[in-house]
Amino acid sequence: MDSQDLEKLVTRTMPFGKYEGRVIADLPGGYLAWFARQGFPAGELGRLLALMYQIDHNDLRGLLRPLRRR
Length: 70
Fold this sequence. Notes:
Blueprint: H1 5-9, H2 29-38, H3 43-57, H4 65-68
Helix pairs in contact: 2-3
C-alpha cells in the first residue's frame, strides 16, 4: 500500500459501471464484495478497490473520516 492510497480513496471516483462518478470510499460494501468475488480490475483502480474492500470488510471506514475534512 502506498502512503497516499488512503487519500486517494476519498478523492478518486469510480470511472465506470453502476456507481460511475462516486468516490471510491463511498462505494457500497456489496459492490466491493462483488469485485472481490469476480476479480478486481488491473492497475491502480483495482488496488484501491481491494484496499477499500478490506477497510469495509473489517468495519474500518471510520479511519477515512479525518481525511474527508481536508
